[in-house]
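Exercise: predict the fold of this chain.
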Amino acid sequence: MLRRKFYEKLLEWKKKPRKKPLLVRGARQVGKTFIIRQFAKTYDSYVELNFLKSPEHGRIFEGALDAESIYSRITLIVKDVHLVPGRTLIFLDEIQKCGAARTALKFLAEDGRYDIVASGSLLGIQQNGVASIPVGYEETAVMYSLDFEEFLWAKGYADAHIASAREAFAKCGKVDDLLNAKFHEETRDYIAIGGMPAVVDAFSVNRDYGEADAIQRGIIRDYMDDILNYAPDAEKPKVRSCFLSIPRQLARESENRKFKYAEVEKGVGARKYGNSVEWLRDAEIAEMAYNLTAPLYPLSAYVDDSIFKLYLSDIGLLTAMYGFGMKASVVGGTISGTVKGALYENLVASCLVRNGHQLRYIRDKHEPLEVEFLVEVEDMVVPIEVKASNSSTASLDRLLARDDIPFGYKLTGGNVGVCGKKTTLPHYMVMFL
């Protein structure tokens, strides 16, 4: 079984004395159902309602939505149910298929006899008959595909190996040369394989890149099917075109990787394709990084939402979209050019999102100034420049010359080093940021 950090989040939620129902969001196939079923083993009794596989479970939420009526209908429709107050978990899977169940979370929260976890994909864009979103009566958590640390666990690395690198990060000291080389090698594997559980699980057993690629392509087809099935009719071809354009959008020269609607279709703009990009973001298939007008705290006050980059949520799927041959180039370390920069930039973007950061960057052609990411640490702005090779960092140096920027990071393929306010880190240390 893959070790997932989200399991600890579930345990923390369970400890809360008066908890709200937990709504677990996330893209298709990131492992939501599996991890919740494992978590259910910590309860004395468990009820799973799956509105996709068992549409008859939707009948439980027809009629009155008070807790007493719902629980009574559960015992009528689901066999061998044993509800024990305080010791039962009720799991509402694929809740996007039953709008009434989402509405009912308010009444189940007020009742509080049983722990309720709901999950689903496309929850950001599919309401499907939800009469009332239970604002204030549900707790939301987003689950992603495996991050790099979870990938290392799947590959058999011990906590001590990761702790050694973490200590080097904390002390700004060099990582042992052998461990540093191995982690760079694993970073290249992570770029090729990504973090989708089915892909990682299969690869960790057989180390078969072809098998991994086949599973990745199946997931990409599933995403395309989701677009066909769930995007508004007028948006379907536009969402599909935006999705397929992401690899080539990112493969442009680094200073020009912003998402261009004209790259999707010449002569058009946000009026035609803006909703399509937002659909991909809300479906949690892609992540948007907005440009900043100034590197000042709070960053949210200086966002220009008309200029943005679009990254895939899982780095392995991006690699797969470049073609199977890209895996050999990445793993072998022979990749070069703008695609190499695109992959490493997407790698860092996905890791920052998993660590809770908003994606923002700054590009000012008049300075000139281009830094891939700026994040907030307490009330400070911290720039992060991503280098596929160990090249110069003129833009980062320009930011670090400011008195209000305390320090910054340069992510490269080398080891840890410090020069004034700039700390150079191996790419894999983004997991610690």
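Check your answer against the key: The chain is about 40% helix and 20% strand.
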